[in-house]
Amino acid sequence: MISVANRSSALQSRAAGSRAVPAFAARRAVRVQAVPDPARSDQAGGENATKDLSDVSAPTSLKDVGPAIREAAPVMAPAFEAPLLLPTFSRRREIFAGRLAIVGFASVAAWEIATPGHPGLLSITSSLTGWSLPLTKLVYSGLIAHGLLGLLWPGSPTYSSANKRDYARRPEGPPTAAVNPFTNPQKFFGTSSFWGYTKKNELFVGRMSMIGFFMGLINEMQSGLGPIGQVSWWLGNPTPSDEFYSKAKVAILGFAALVTVIGYATGRAGTVEGEEDIF
What we know:
It comes from Monoraphidium neglectum. The chain is mainly alpha-helical. About 60% of the residues lie in helices and about 0% in strands.
């Protein structure tokens, strides 16, 4: 049985308990909101996610400064992506197209050297697909026109603010900034200061392969020669012999072996410091 005195104390305890519940819930709500949401950060288009730095130790020597900075750096949002079939000039797609051009150009050159008839890209595609040469030229022209839409179409994702921010993460240089090729050739071509399999050098070789693949295709439409035969044509011999192709094979394999040996012998067969945002 509850007396008047007991009833007042009970009411006070109930009131105190009711006031304690929302206070506890508020503290929990604030604590939950303080936890970063990775999905929301990824959708922010370049906005940094938080990172726990409690286990990051201070550098003890000069050589430890670089690793400490990279360890303490915030987690960046993923690279800009566009629909697969939508033509776009982006950072990641340039790397993919460059790698595809490297493999394609090397395959066409190897096929041209090894095959007795020394066919070029158009002839190889025509023989593999059964298409006529005019149809093969039309197909490649359509692929080139589709890619150019990403550069010429004003509504292309190429010109979106998210893609521009993502592309700006790369080191300064063409095509985002003009550089004098005579006073600063390394920055103009975007290469490393040494030979090796680095990200900068891969980007440069990929760009050269895309240009070479495109120009080789255009020249083959006029001369009928593949990329190796076009070298002979530019040297003044429009009908390259088998001896020329044999010498070209030795030169290409020798250069590839030399670059590989230098890259691995100097310990530069992968990513070096400062290349994290190439791709």
